[in-house]
Recover the amino acids of this structure.
């Protein structure tokens, strides 16, 4: 894994943006895997800026998001459909029919998982998968102990994840307890992976991802087994022990 350390989330976003721009400009019909959460918000703002400056077009791009909550309608402000529209899709020239997220209100959720996998198989492979890192080491919503061979599936969210994500919800709103996520096996099929890590709360997870055993207890540790991973981490996410190693 290649690791690049930057000062803060602003620099992280600039560097990640250049990765994505390069990928989009070099590939005829790029397929991008996208993450939500706080970490990539500035990255998406920078991509929108590049688009507005006419330095980038998403006309030929296809996107697959990692995950979506079960039970939230697409127009719910905390759904990932809404997030993607707010932060990226509604500001750029991507065709809505080329943007994919799991549908968390599907009448048959198992079928929806299989359908999402099939779509990735048909339209993929994913050229560049962007990932964030959970405080508990999750990638997508693959929580600790998820077997590495899982494809898109339904998950029960960890209390730690629900707690971390409650920052996006009103105090009166419950964070959903279930989600659909691409599985680790699905993520590992991506040709290239860009893991973005920002903030001091990620220190332990990042340390274990980089230097710990490859174990389902730390889902991101599987990235050690992928041949093309770049990690961009800011200074706050680097623990002292990591600097020494
Ligand atoms: C989001 C996702 C999650 C987040 C992770 C970090 O689509 O799949 O794995 O990337 O929870 O979230 P933030 O960036 O909010 O710390």
């Amino acid at each position: 894994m290649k690791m690049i350390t930057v000062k803060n989330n602003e620099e992280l976003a600039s560097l990640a943006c250049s990765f994505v721009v390069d990928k989009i400009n070099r590939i005829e019909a790029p397929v991008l895997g996208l993450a939500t959460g706080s970490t990539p918000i500035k990255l998406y703002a920078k991509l929108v800026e590049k688009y507005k400056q006419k330095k980038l077009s998403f006309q030929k791009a296809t996107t697959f998001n990692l995950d979506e909550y079960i039970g939230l309608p697409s127009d719910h402000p905390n759904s990932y459909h809404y997030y993607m529209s707010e932060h990226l899709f509604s500001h750029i020239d991507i065709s809505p029919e080329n943007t994919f997220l799991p549908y968390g209100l599907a009448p048959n959720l198992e079928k929806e998982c299989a359908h999402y996998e099939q779509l990735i198989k048909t339209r993929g492979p994913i050229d560049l998968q962007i990932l964030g890192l959970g405080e508990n080491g999750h990638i997508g919503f693959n929580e600790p102990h998820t077997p590495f061979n899982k494809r898109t599936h339904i998950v029960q969210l960890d209390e730690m994840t629900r707690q971390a994500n409650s920052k996006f919800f009103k105090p009166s709103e419950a964070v959903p307890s279930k989600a659909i996520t691409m599985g680790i096996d699905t993520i590992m099929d991506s040709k290239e992976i860009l893991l973005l890590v920002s903030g001091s709360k990620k220190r332990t997870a990042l340390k274990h991802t980089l230097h710990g055993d490859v174990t389902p207890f730390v889902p991101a540790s599987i990235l050690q087994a992928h041949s093309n991973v770049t990690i961009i981490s800011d200074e706050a996410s680097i623990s002292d022990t990591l600097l020494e190693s």
Remarks:
- The domain at 2-189 is CATH 3.40.50.1360 (Rossmann fold).
- Helices lie at 9-26, 41-52, 80-87, 109-123, 159-165, 184-188, 203-211, 240-244.
- The mean pLDDT is 96.
- The chain has one domain: 2-189.
